[in-house]
Amino acid sequence: MSGLALRADRVSLGHGSRSVVRDLSFEVRPGEVFAVLGASGCGKSTLLRGLAGLLPVRDGALYADDRPIVAPAPERALMFQDDALLPWRSVRRNVELPLAIRGLSRTARRRRAEQWLDRVGLGDQADRLPAQLSGGMRQRVQLARTLAGEPRAVLMDEPFGALDAQTRGAMQRLLADVLRSTAATVVFVTHDVDEALFVADRVAVLTPAGIPTLVDVPEPRDPATRGTPLVREAREELLAALFERSPA
Ligand SMILES: Nc1ncnc2c1ncn2[C@@H]1O[C@H](COP(=O)(O)OP(=O)(O)OP(=O)(O)O)[C@@H](O)[C@H]1O
Fold first, then answer.
1. Does ligand 1 lie within 6 Å of residue 17's CB atom?
2. Ligand 1: nearest atom to the Cα of 16
3. DSSP bridge partners of 203
4. ipTM of the complex
5. Does residue 16 have its Cβ closer than 6 Å to ligand 1?
6. Ranges in the chain, pLDDT < 70
7. How many CB atoms lie within 10 A of CB 144?
């Protein structure tokens, strides 16, 4: 399984009569973790829905491996901030859901769900209901469910936005860890510059002009490099792009 190459070619997206994203172009390389930052309301979620195939493009095009994206597909999985688990199904049966859709046998589904729950540290919670878990644990179940389906691209919309700082840090480290074992391409929308600098290989700041500012992350997903001069420099660059000013 290889990660999908994703591409926006002068794409415009919107809601009703209103265009939100205009003339936007960028490429995400296979297997890359690509974070998207931008002012509130600039269209980050709209872009993610477009990449998921949930929102038709108005102009230009979005591509997955050079095929135009026109509808949702299991190879592109979306993970939200909101708790999207089914409350009446046990944790294990929630993780089994994408596997059932893919037609895996009952035994294979169960085995794969249990493996993924182990990987996110919830092997002993499989029989509980989502309401019996904390918010952080529920996000771990969502992560397991998203990755268990072996998508070639994972589209994450502020997945840790609702968590407290400590749980959020733990989730970022867990994500970095589990991504090592998948080849999936990840597009990660966040408000948090430091989160982007930790989880991503490259960060895009959406600007109204359509050409995002792109910043390479030095030593991604290595907690030891947080705060090093190179990372501080990348941080300054991102903040400058976000606030549309030149670096000091
Ligand atoms: N379903 C919808 N119908 C109508 N307008 C919408 C819809 N979803 C989003 N919008 C509008 O589109 C604009 C962009 O919204 P979007 O959620 O994509 O921005 P965002 O950058 O993700 O914002 P935030 O950082 O605050 O989450 C906003 O003005 C929003 O009100």
1. no
2. 4
3. 35, 215
4. 0.96
5. yes
6. 82, 208-210, 245-248
7. 25
